[in-house]
Amino acid sequence: MDVLRLCIGLYGISGVGKSTFLGTLESGEQRLEVVEGSDVLAKRCGSLDKFKSLGSSQKRAEREAAGEHLIHRSEGNPLVVAAHFSFPAREQPATGPFSFEVAFTDTDARLYTHVVYLEADAQVIASQSSLDTSRSRQHCDNEELLEQWQRHEIDQLRTRCERNGTPFSLIGPLRDSGRSDFAAAKALIHDWLEQHKNRLAVQKWLKDSLEPSNAAGVPKSVFLLIDGDGTLAREDTTRLFFEELAVVQG
Fold first, then answer.
1. Strands, E assignment, 119-212
2. Is residue 45 domain-shared with residue 87, that is, in the same domain?
3. Per-residue model confidence (pLDDT) at position 247
4. 84-93, 130-139, 173-182, 184-193: least confidently modelled range
5. What pLDDT does residue 94 have?
6. I need a labelling partner for 93 at 20 to 30 A (CA). Which of 44, 77, 126, 240 fits?
7. Residues 99 and 194 in one domain
8. What are phi and psi of 6, to 5 degrees?
């Protein structure tokens, strides 16, 4: 049987609170492994600064390799990975809309089984970024850029998820604070985790039931499949079943 994976991509522009949200999952969902995508890249390259010093093609190659690593890692444990979809371009046009460089790769499209996007008011993101002295973030005081950046990511990521058949959930800002609704995101991830646990249980039951019980290859159980909607046969299969059962029982 195919390996069932659960790997949730956690997206949102810089300053929205992805790392803070991961911290809430670490303390609340013991069955989840939470991962900072930047930590994976830093470990591969020696440091995040070394990664940032690479050329565009080298960065893409490292991102693809990191994605492959996480695909294999998610075969053992459910993962939530905080990642970046894009960054503001270093050189911005003098007039017109801002431009952005996409960091999302083809491997990312295969990696994630679900995607959550944290959205917040641009003013809140700018304020949170100014208070975070542990990181240097370009452009995070420009609310107009933050609004365009967020809209660009939501539109592009939703389109890619629809193309790949990946569930995409947008977690909007709270009305009173403008911050992203962490409680809603956490509840959604919890539901996905429960669904994954149930699928694993069903897969194990099917595997155990279908395994041969002896050297002749006879299954442990006999299964009766009924075509209930007329796809394989025009007859009423339920009626036929009970007619045959009556014959067998005499």
1. 168-171
2. yes
3. 81
4. 130-139
5. 72
6. 126
7. yes
8. -130, 110
Identify the domain containing residue 119 by its residue range: 7-201
Q: Which two tokens stand for residue 75?
A: 């075969």
Note whether residue 206 is domain-resident.
no
Residues 162 and 217 in one domain: no
Residues in the chain: 250
Sole residue written with tokens 């909607």: 229
Cα separation, 197 vs 78, in Å, equals 10
Compute the distance between CA of residue 194 and CA of residue 183 in angstroms, rounded to an integer: 17
CATH of the domain at 23: 3.40.50.300
Which phi-psi region, left, alpha or beta, contains residue 178 (left: φ > 0; alpha: ψ -120 to 50)? left
Q: Between 94 and 110, whose confidence is greater?
A: 110
Q: Render 47-88 in DSSP notation, one character per residue.
A: SHHHHHTS-HHHHHHHHHHHHHHHHHHTTTS-EEEE--SEEE
* Calpha distance 221→209 (Å, rounded): 6
- Cα-based distances in Å from 226 to 20, 68, 71, 93, 222: 50, 40, 37, 63, 13
Answer whether residue 78 is part of any domain: yes
pTM of the predicted structure, to 2 decimals: 0.82
**Residue 36: closest CA among 27, 49, 23:** 23
